[in-house]
Predict the 3D structure of the following.
Amino acid sequence: MGADNAGLLDVADVHGGYGQQEVLRGLSLRVRPAETVCVIGPNGAGKSTLLKMVFGYLRPARGDVLFEGVSLLGRRPPEILRRGIAYVPQGPSVLPHLTVEDNLELAAYVRSDRQVRGDVQRLLEEFPGLAARRRARAGTLSGGERRMLEIARVLLVNPRLVLLDEPTIGLSVAATDFVYAKVREFHRRGVAVLIVEQNARTALRNSDRAYVLEQGRVRFEGSGEEILGHPDVRRAYLGARA
Amino acid sequence: MSPPVLALWIAAACVPLAVHDAYLMNGLILTCIYGTAAQAWNLLGGYGGQLSFGHAVFFGAGAYTSTLLLTSAAVSPWAGMWIGAGVAAAVALIVGYPTFRLRRHYFALATLALAELVRIVVLNWPLVGGAVGLYLPVRLIGRTGAMMWRTKPPYYELALALLALACALAWLVDRTRLGMYLRAVDQDEGAAQALGVPTRRYKLLAIGLSAGLTALAGSVFAQYVLYIDPSTVLDSSRSVLFAVMALLGGRGTVIGPVLGAGFLTLLSQYAGGALGGLGRGYDYVLYGLAIMLVAIYEPRGLAGLFAHFRRAGGGAPHVEPQANGESGAAAGRRDAGPAVLEVQDLAMHFGGVRALRGVTLDVKRGEIVGILGPNGAGKSTLFDCVTGFLAPSGGRVLLRGGHGSPDRRGPTAIGGRAPAWIAQQGLARTFQLMRVFPAMTVMENLLVAHEHRGESLLASLTPSPGAAHVRAAELLHFVGLAGHRDATASVLSYGQQKLLSLAMALMRRPRLVLLDEPVAGVNLTVIERIKEHIRAQNAAGVTFLIIEHNMDVIMELADRLYFLAEGRVVTEGAPEAIQRNEEVLRLYYGR
Amino acid sequence: MDLFLAAAVGGLVMGLVYALVSLGLGLIWGVMDVINFAHAEYMMLAMYAMFFANRWFGLTPPGGLLVIVPLAFVAGVATYRVLIRRVVQAPPVTQIFTTFGLLFFLRYLAFAAFGPNYRGIVWPAASGAVVIAGVPVGGEKVAAALAALVTYALLHAWLRGTKTGKALQATAQNPLAALALGIEVERMYALAWGLSIASAAVAGVFLLPFYQASPTVADAFVLIAFASVVLGGFGSLLGPLVGGVAIGLIEGIAGTLLSPTFKLVFVFAAFLLVLFVRPTGLLGRATP
């Protein structure tokens, strides 16, 4: 593995799951700097588990996760955040009884510089939907607004890699488009993105590369377009007989 | 009862022949009385895990009832104490009924509050002595009919007999189904209900027995100390004492409360002298430490030191399974029969979320029906509504065939009924987050899963029937866990636990089995085995409704599939049709 | 009417004291769903600390605060680090017995160290009656009620206004999300324990001038503290405040107008009613 080939994120032959469960069965993938990579596949394939292992919520039973060449194993989420990886979980992760503004400020928890206030204001200008609700409790936001908030939070810590776990689940078409507009913006800013999606087509269209997961392993790998048109992907989703 | 244990009791009964020191005899008598109360507490809190900090109410109920009957109506305490036990049991049932709904912490607080409430009422009620208390008529001393003697040995024998009764009761619970059911309630009440165990009934039985026994101890206590008042028999420190004795000695064991009572009573009598003689409570500081250590590290307490008194699972002999390894219901053809389950327009809303918006589906007898769909489609919610863990907001759930002859009876509406009742109608389920009873053996897990319909309270005080053991052994053999029958469930691997939970669902020969992601999280070998087991059971006539994401497995197993998304059935059909269905692909695969 | 007013004012003042005692209990309960049965024992220890601070150094409550509260904070953090963190994920039985053992341990430590006798102090600066709405109330009690209000106000401002305060709120609302934002949940739990015990210490320090210390003094407050938290609801810092005042008022008014000897009966009856009917309490948000 030459230095110029090394990934920003390298997942190497990872096995494991929650506790003793076997969800990932030897999964390897790579995300290069500033790349947008999506991971698709049916439920139970291990997509969310993968992200949780990268971010330190779970520990692999075997295998390694390397970020910029350094192993992340055994490190807890706050530390991994400080190393430059941000994570947006699948379910709601806003703090429901705090205001939108407070949620944003807290997102900069690991930053100690004085520019946080200014950055929060700038961010609210970028996300007009949120600015209008800045003093509302985050628990009262709609699903789309909530996602916006969760993605906005990520921008405050200037990560080098963003992990998005099914960001468009349950969202309207407009909200989904907005999310992917932001993903493209990450790309422009040189931030790598690893997206896990069940709604695969939109993700594939917006990604440089894609992996198709099945039963805890990578089945196919290729560019976004290649995977989009690949006939075998349907089989991965719906079983061998198709 | 084994010879060594019998010998111990006999030796204990002979103690007054050897011991003449009044101080020591006093300690022994109190040990027996408190030990009885601790053992009583153990029935509810040790086995059942329902921590009561208000047992002083029952202790006081016994003491006050028998004393009042004696002083005002000249009723002999030999009768009075049983009346007191009855009073205490009645109070327990009335109190237990609403409080058992509460979470454990709240139950503990509620019992504490109730006990304090009673204490204050009695403290201010002159009719029962108020703060002054009640004196027992000392002129009756020496009359056995009045349960009063001049010397200590008769009190000792009485207290010992009471302790023996308490231990016999605990031994009975420990060895019979009741103990298993209580442990199941302690470890996972919801899972027990899903297996058809009527948990509230057993909790009430436990608290009733516990209260009655504690009251007996209270009566004997009154007869011994000859004076009672709220601070001696109704104080919260008494409640705590009983609980702590059971805990330190080892909750959920027969010998634990006895050890705990002996330890705390005798040692505090004598250690107070050893530790500087100031009686300043250094010993209790150590007890505090001991309680914390026991709670965190060794729940079996002092009894953990006696671990070689290990119980066998339900006390039944090892039974060999029948030869053929396939153990479904009476063999039937696999043609689909009439509908076993009908879900009509089922709706479920909670907290502004509409999880199910009118789901209609059916499962015919002998079929394997699969449910597919993306995350958040409402699949597990559907299961919860069908099995009684959620009460539907709308629509109907009908089960046909109930128990007894398959089609003679009309359909039964099961929506909104309690989980245990629904399970007894012939429905079984597993959970997505797998639930077995971690601190019970594999065999015990299966025995708890045996049929509960028509099981009387009295029956629960007997060991599991032979038929249950035979069936369990068959299933163990069927899923390949025969070699692990005495292993504690928590030491099994995830895959083995999944097999166990499948076996548990099959124990009652259910009409319909609902499996929630039966092959998630297990290795490929176990996946194959589970697939084969489901096939074999289906061939023998068991109907399945399965939520599963593993396409290879579900496409092969299912006769029909329903595809759920956003709380509705989007489409249904045979696997081939679903696989070619564009809308399904779009829903899964995206725009 | 005068009687009612006197009862209400007295009940309100006492209710604020109860609220102060319950503050820490509710904090831990809300942040990590642990019920600390030993909470009032820490208050008892603080009362003894105040006693000795007064006897040896002539300190009165304000001075005592400066010394005792920081010590209490450290004790709270230490309790978490040494003991509680081992049972945060444990089943309810284990948690209940662990804090119960702690209760035993602390109480009998006090017995051993201080003996069973009652101890009190005199606080000349606060003695004498303060008239509120025409009702005379003991100065020491009023001081304690004021201390309660100040403590709640400070804590409220801290939680709402500082980064760490908001981080603590985040930890209570969604620990996994908090981790994802870089908040060290373990540290937040330790901090919550420090604050909890520190607030119990404030209660103890101000209680001593009008309520004598003994190793069993906690008994009189334990159930009331639980009742305050449950009644007021948790998830919100102000829950125990509302609950404590409610309990004080129930005790005062029912006690004066209906029956003094049974005043606690009314309190406990109200507590049980809330437990059965609305376990989330008056202000509470549903706890999962």
Q: What stands out?
A: The CA atoms of residues 223 and 268 of chain C lie 8 Å apart. The first strand of chain C starts at residue 129 and ends at 132. Chain C touches chain B at residues 35, 83, 86-87, 90, 92-98, 100-109, 111-112, 115, 215, 219, 223, 226-227, 230, 261-262, 264-265, 268-269, 271-272, 275-276, 279 (CB under 8 Å).
